[in-house]
Structure formats: C-alpha cells, structure tokens
Amino acid sequence: MTKFFRDFVKDESGASAAEYALILAIVGSAIAASAILLGDAVADAMDRATDDINATNT
C-alpha cells in the first residue's frame, strides 16, 4: 500500500499534486458546508418536534 502512495506521489503524468490538492480542498469544503447545513436543519426539526410534543402534554 505504501508503494502505491509513493508511486502515486512521484507520478508526474496527468494532474500535478497542486491540482489534486485543489480538488481535495473544493470537495472537502463542499462536504463541510453540507454537514453544517444538514446539522442545522436536523437541529431545527428536532426543536420543532420537541415543541409540538411539549405543547400536547400541557
């Protein structure tokens, strides 16, 4: 496995390491933003559900 990564890093054909780093940064940023937005949406939905449950119990 380490040989694969060593060969991958040394391979100069195709995209360079800088291009791979840029792609990784873009994809990573998109995943992080999606996780934050999804987390906020889930938290809001849970808060609304809790409010509805509490409203019916009073």
TrEMBL record:
It comes from the Bacteria. Keywords: Membrane, Transmembrane, Transmembrane helix. The chain crosses the membrane at residues 20-38. This is Flp family type IVb pilin. The lineage of its organism: Bacteria, Pseudomonadati, Pseudomonadota, Alphaproteobacteria, Sphingomonadales.
